[in-house]
């Protein structure tokens, strides 16, 4: 969590500190649509994200207990990501964001 949010009693500031940035919302969206995804699958469905950024965002979402990371000890290594119950509580917000985008997105000429 960001240092500036630790001293603030505002719930909006806290929420933004947990899910700030475009990648976290897109990761949550892709996991909600697919259920379980491996790292490589997430990378494919998030065009433009770098390896470093995806790793960082996944770690932060895991620390906030919004996603679950399941590691299988095999060769080659296998790691799967899914939403936690806490992560699923953000789905209504994602739905509202989607609706807002549909209603307010500029039309293409």
UniProtKB/TrEMBL annotation:
InterPro entries: HTH_HxlR, WH-like_DNA-bd_sf, WH_DNA-bd_sf
Keywords: DNA-binding, Transcription, Transcription regulation
Pfam families associated with the record: HxlR
PROSITE patterns the record matches: HTH_HXLR
Claim: RNA-binding is one of the keywords in the record: no
Alphabetized GO MF terms: DNA binding
Domain HTH hxlR-type: 10-109
PANTHER family in alphabetical order: TRANSCRIPTIONAL REGULATOR, TRANSCRIPTIONAL REGULATOR, MARR FAMILY
Name the record gives this protein: Transcriptional regulator, HxlR family
Species the sequence originates in: Sporomusa malonica
């Amino acid at each position: 969590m960001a240092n500036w949010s630790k001293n603030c009693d505002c719930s909006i500031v806290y929420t933004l500190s947990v899910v700030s940035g475009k990648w976290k919302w897109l990761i949550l969206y892709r996991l909600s649509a697919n259920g379980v995804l491996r790292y490589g699958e997430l990378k494919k469905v998030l065009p433009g994200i770098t390896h470093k950024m995806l790793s960082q965002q996944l770690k932060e979402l895991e620390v906030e207990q919004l996603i679950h990371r399941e590691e299988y000890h095999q060769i080659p290594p296998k790691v799967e990501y899914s939403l936690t119950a806490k992560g699923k509580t953000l789905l209504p917000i994602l739905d509202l964001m989607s609706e807002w985008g549909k209603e307010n997105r500029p039309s293409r000429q």
